[in-house]
Write a structure and sequence with these properties.
There is one protein chain. The protein has helices at 9-21, 84-90, 194-205, 229-233, 276-282, 286-306, 313-325, 336-365, 376-380, 399-406, 414-423, 435-442, 473-485, 488-497, 499-512, 531-559, and strands at 47-52, 70-75, 95-101, 106-116, 123-133, 160-165, 173-174, 191-192, 209-214, 239-241, 253-254, 259-268, 366-367, 386-388, 409-410, 427-431, 450-462, 465-466, 516-517. The chain is an alpha/beta fold. The chain folds into 4 domains: 6-142, no CATH class; 154-258 and 463-497, D-Maltodextrin-Binding Protein, domain 2, CATH 3.40.190.10; 276-367; 530-560. Strands 1-2-3-4-5 form a 5-stranded mixed β-sheet. A 5-stranded mixed β-sheet has the order 9-6-10-18-11, with helices on one face. It has a 5-stranded mixed β-sheet with strand order 15-14-16-12-17, with helices on both faces. The longest helix has 30 residues, at 336-365. The chain crosses the membrane at residues 284-304, 343-364, 533-555. Keywords: Cell membrane, Glycoprotein, Membrane, Receptor, Transmembrane, Transmembrane helix.
């Protein structure tokens, strides 16, 4: 807190009592620059409250104030004669002036803002005055407050709005980017993406002419590329977009979060193809019928012996097997015990026939979903081999992730990882925005071949970069947050991927996880689906013919 003259004693008393009342730490000093800041403060944590007797004392104020601090300055008179060069300097600081009109009971707040000069395209200082009318004769609860602003919103008046564009799907896609260098000019026809559309909206809101430049950044490992920041800091670029992050501290300003994106594990899936091996695998309970068949044969032999009948064990096994398969009848039952035993065995045979029929019907019609993994632990315990880019595989410190990363194999970039993911039935790490396009592109019969684990490795919050203390930071933040809150940013994100691509990916993802039917009407089993039975019949006939020929030749040899 700064003291200009001894006449400010009343001001000091009021200010200190309010600070103590609201538990605000404060320092009293006789100079506006008396507090030495040794550490970088968080935005909005420090402010200075100062008192000046007249406007002449403000002449050299820009030489002592700090851009990191918010200043509230109370002056005794209305500073209508502030020089234009002082205004041009103050526009880059967070300063608000207050004065009072005792005759009309008005509290006047004055803030210096920017206004673009149309001819020179230079940002000039401009006064924005808010007048609050206070009726001192009424209680605090009934005070009437009115305010008006004498200036319009920021208008760049078609001057150039210089923006750097980095490449990151689906925020910004740039044609022939491998031939470009940082700060090379870009044409609107050569770029697309959600950030491109957003920056067009912002430029239109600011009434500016959009001037785009390319900035190089490694998409797989973007956290170490910061060469383009010098163009923002020195004023060559007013802002940078293209799926950037808030990772550069306080050397630049930010737009606020306008998009989030997850980094996830993805893995390859595929429905099992039909084969007779899978059919027998489905009928894994057949051994129960074999056990019952053996038990029946033994019991039948015991019962017949108890009844005094001579029965061959060979004939018992043969007739029991034929009855089980429905190809022959059981042996004649002569006693009540034998009849009951045969009835129960026939019921079991009918149940076997029903069980086998249901399994064949299911095998020929219902296609079950492939194995899928809901958690990272399930993926780790699976047979999926992970493929990761070596230079960026340890981008997060997590034990579960590092365990899989340590056992991973190498791939060159996102595209190479996607190829190896499909070809080797493996797993990899992808940005969530890449997944819909990959699912749509690799889908087979409208079914996805790539799924994601529900758990997210990391959630990325995207923010655009703005030049520090730029005169349009406030307007930029305002329009960006309005676009985000209205859902327009998400809509543009989906459109950048492709609405049809997103829809196809959702359908493919749903189809692969459902118990779909291969038939379309009534699930009718066709002869084509039963072809295996005919193959077995043909093989059996061929074997029978071969045995018949062998027996015939053997019989003729005995005749001679």
């Amino acid at each position: 807190m700064d003291i200009q003259t001894l006449k400010s004693d009343i001001f000091i008393d009021i200010a200190t009592s309010e600070a103590i009342k609201n538990q605000i730490p404060f320092i009293i000093t006789d100079e506006i620059s008396g507090v030495n800041i040794t550490e970088e403060p968080d935005r909005g944590t420090l402010f200075s409250l100062s008192y000046f007797e007249n406007c002449e004392a403000l002449t050299n104020i820009t030489k002592v104030i700090d851009k990191r601090i918010k200043y509230f300055i109370i002056v005794q008179e209305i500073c209508e004669n502030i020089k234009s060069d002082l205004l041009s300097e103050l526009q880059f600081y967070d300063v608000m002036f207050f004065t009072s009109d005792q005759d009309n009971g008005k509290l006047i707040s004055i803030k210096v803002t920017s206004e673009m000069d149309e001819e020179s395209c230079r940002s000039m200082g401009h006064i924005k005055m808010e007048v609050t009318i206070i009726n001192h004769n009424e209680s605090d609860e009934n005070k009437e407050r009115q305010s008006y602003v004498s200036t319009a919103a920021l208008n760049l008046k078609k001057c150039k709005f210089n923006v750097g564009l980095a490449s990151l799907y689906p925020y910004s896609m740039i044609k022939n980017k491998k031939y470009l260098k940082t700060f090379d000019p870009l044409q609107i026809d050569d770029i697309n993406g959600s950030d491109v559309e957003i920056i067009k909206i912002i430029a239109n809101y600011l009434n500016a002419t959009l001037n785009l430049h390319y900035v190089h950044r490694n998409e797989e490992n973007p956290y170490f590329d910061s060469d383009y920041l010098k163009f923002v800091i020195n004023g060559s670029l007013d802002a940078c977009v293209g799926g950037l992050y808030k990772i550069y501290g306080d050397i630049v300003s930010y737009s606020g979060i306008y998009s989030t994106q997850a980094i996830v594990w993805v893995y390859s899936v595929e429905r099992n193809t039909r084969s007779w091996q899978t059919l027998f695998g489905k009928m894994h309970g057949l051994y129960i019928f074999l056990i019952i068949y053996i038990i029946y044969s033994i019991i039948w032999k015991i019962v017949c012996k108890f009844d005094g009948e001579a029965v061959s064990m060979k004939d018992t096994l043969l007739y029991s097997w034929g009855a089980l398969l429905g190809t022959t009848s059981l042996q004649d039952a002569r006693t009540v015990k034998q009849r009951i035993l045969n009835i129960l065995y026939l019921i079991m045979s009918l149940f076997l026939s029903t069980y086998v029929s249901c399994q064949i019907y299911s095998y020929l019609t219902i296609v079950e979903p492939p194995p899928h993994y809901r958690t990272i632990d399930e993926l780790e315990n699976s047979d999926r081999i992970p493929y990761l880019v070596p230079v960026s595989k340890y981008f997060v410190k997590d034990k579960k992730y590092e365990t899989i990363a340590n056992a991973s194999r190498d791939c060159i970039n996102f595209e190479d990882c996607e190829i190896k993911l499909i070809n080797n039935k493996a797993s990899t790490v992808l940005i969530d925005g890449h997944l819909p396009f990959l699912q749509s592109r690799t889908a087979v019969n409208d079914e996805a071949r790539v799924l994601r684990v529900a758990n997210e490795i990391l959630t990325i919050y995207h923010e655009m970069i703005i030049r520090k203390y730029s005169p349009f930071v406030e307007s930029y933040n305002k329009v960006t947050q309005r676009l985000f809150e209205s859902g327009i940013c998400r809509r543009l994100y989906d459109e950048a991927i492709g609405i049809t691509v997103v829809d196809k990916a959702k359908i493919a993802n749903k189809n692969i996880l459902s118990n779909s039917y291969s038939c379309t009407v009534g699930c009718q089993i066709t002869l084509l689906q039963l072809a295996g039975i005919f193959y077995i019949l043909i093989i059996g006939c061929f074997i029978s013919i071969c045995i018949f020929i062998i027996e015939l030749l053997s019989y003729r040899q005995k005749q001679f």
